[in-house]
């Protein structure tokens, strides 16, 4: 099974998921009864990050398992797996071979989903048991406290994290990350930065202003490749992000040169060719 190396996925910063078209089923051909949007995918069409829309009344009542790890965060609606009810922002990591006895979504759901290999649905129980060390059956982040102590001290005060998962083998992490409003780079200038690993971002609420790319709003998505510099960045209204690291734990590598920051940067995202037709500036809805 693929381990989610991320090395073959194209750099994307950023695209808005609501602007992408729906496709029938998953990219592997599995689950033809759902719709999906592919946010990023590797060259071999194995590992991918997608948004899945489960229709109201969807259900699967027979035991089955997937050939890939499935990591997910519910965006809208509700989905139930073996009695566990996942509402908005609820999280799970179900390893390859994990048996789902029954699944359903009475009201429908939209779910941010990361597959770590080609997802194929196989009836029954696999010959090889799943890796218990990887299982995160269910986390409700609304029952957790924010932890500012987990944030890189080089970053501005006020931000905090809710940890969701750390891979016991690779130390890759998944977490929620929040910033309060009015977080402005000191003197409206700040260095760009990058990482030695891939950082995957999905904006759940608020806006994230990238000095070199534009304003990213709810549904904004990034597959930030290692060694690619971006920024400076800030937020005037605050934000809530889902973050996943690929190929190791999170680190931040800052440039030495400070660059000016503006609340109205030009719209200049870096996206793959297949996404360019859907790349549009974020337009904030009116307050009244």
UniProtKB/TrEMBL annotation:
Highest taxon in the source lineage: Bacteria
Pfam families reported in the protein's UniProt record: Cupin_7
Residue ranges of every copy of the ChrR-like cupin domain listed in the record: 15-106
SUPFAM superfamilies with a match to the protein in the record: RmlC-like cupins (SSF51182)
Species annotation: Altererythrobacter arenosus
Signal peptide per UniProt: none
Classification lineage: Bacteria, Pseudomonadati, Pseudomonadota, Alphaproteobacteria, Sphingomonadales
Protein name: ChrR-like cupin domain-containing protein
Coiled coil spans: none
């Amino acid at each position: 099974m693929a381990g989610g190396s991320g090395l073959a996925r194209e750099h994307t910063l950023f695209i808005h998921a609501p602007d992408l078209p729906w496709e029938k089923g998953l990219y592997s051909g599995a689950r033809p009864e759902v719709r999906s949007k592919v946010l990023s995918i590797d060259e071999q069409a194995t590992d991918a990050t997608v948004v899945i829309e489960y229709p109201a009344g969807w259900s699967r009542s027979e035991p089955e398992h997937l050939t890939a790890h499935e990591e997910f965060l519910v965006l809208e609606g509700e989905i139930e797996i073996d009695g566990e009810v996942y509402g908005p922002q609820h999280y799970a990591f179900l390893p390859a071979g994990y048996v789902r006895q029954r699944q359903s979504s009475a009201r429908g759901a939209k779910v941010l989903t990361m597959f770590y290999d080609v997802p194929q649905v196989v009836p029954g129980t696999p010959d090889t048991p799943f890796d218990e060390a990887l299982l995160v059956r269910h986390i409700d982040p609304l029952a957790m406290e924010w932890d500012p102590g987990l944030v890189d001290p080089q970053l501005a005060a006020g931000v905090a994290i809710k940890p969701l998962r750390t891979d016991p083998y690779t130390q890759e992490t998944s977490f929620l990350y929040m910033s309060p409003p009015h977080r402005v780079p000191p003197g409206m200038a700040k260095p760009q930065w990058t990482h030695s690993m891939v950082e995957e971002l999905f904006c759940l609420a608020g806006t994230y202003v990238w000095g070199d790319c534009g304003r990213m709003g709810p549904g904004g998505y990034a597959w930030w490749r290692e060694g690619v510099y971006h920024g400076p960045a800030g937020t005037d209204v605050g934000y809530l992000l889902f973050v996943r690291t690929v190929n190791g734990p999170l680190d931040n590598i800052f440039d030495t040169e400070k660059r000016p920051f503006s609340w109205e940067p030009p719209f200049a995202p870096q996206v793959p060719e297949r996404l360019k037709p859907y790349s549009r500036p974020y337009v904030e809805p009116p307050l009244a």
